[in-house]
Amino acid sequence: MAGKVFFSVTMSLDGFIAPGSLGELMGRQWMELQRWVFPTRFFRENLKLGGGGEEGRDNDVARETFERTGASVMGKRMFDAGEQMWPEEAPFHTPVFVVTHEERDPWERPGGTTFHFVDDGIQTALDQARHAAGDRDVRIAGGGATILEYVNAGLVDEFSIALSPVLFGSGIRLFEGVDAGRVALEPVRAEPTQRVTHLTYAVRER
Ligand SMILES: NC(=O)c1ccc[n+]([C@@H]2O[C@H](COP(=O)([O-])OP(=O)(O)OC[C@H]3O[C@@H](n4cnc5c(N)ncnc54)[C@H](OP(=O)(O)O)[C@@H]3O)[C@@H](O)[C@H]2O)c1
User: Fold this and answer.
1) Which residues, in sequence order, are bridge partners of residue 73?
2) Number of structural domains in the chain
3) Which domain holds residue 120?
4) What is the CATH number of the domain that holds 53?
């Protein structure tokens, strides 16, 4: 049975998922935004940062999100940022399909992540990701522009947001340009922790 198509991001309380420029990406705002995930046991394990780390609901959410994902789709700007920041063993450990206008050969990393560059549109990237994922889910990993394309095309079944208690004021807005007349949301779960509120919605056609 085919899995779901979902996204899962961390968002500031005022609706941003990243600072405006790549230069700021590893800066204070990003650290504050993602503060819930860095101390978790799963994050430390996945990035090979050593043992230890916190257990609890934040850790479970991070682990469950990873485990349900059989393949990911991402935009080229997220890839470009990650290419500079991910360790040699990129943290996906599954195939990743990068939607781009650029032609590029697949890039295989140790640990099971291979980046495939798809210059044939979002539907082709999703078809390839579904095939690679088998009966697991496909994660639209980001960033904002790519998630929005999939949402507006009616291709997302469900999404989760870790709503972080920070204000950005400007940056990359998650739902800028959403086709609000088409997309309806059904609440699935809301789980507050000490650091964020985990919100999950099913996406329905209006
Ligand atoms: N807070 C979070 O949880 C979270 C999660 C993920 C990402 N992010 C952040 O999101 C940011 C990136 O988001 P973004 O909105 O700037 O960009 P993006 O969605 O990552 O990438 C957009 C780019 O992807 C390519 N693309 C997208 N759709 C395409 C299509 N249909 N056909 C061909 N190419 C296509 C184009 O690049 P080319 O024309 O150059 O090929 C386009 O400029 C990063 O800063 C990242 O850190 C945050």
Assistant:
1) 97, 140
2) 1
3) 5-205
4) 3.40.430.10
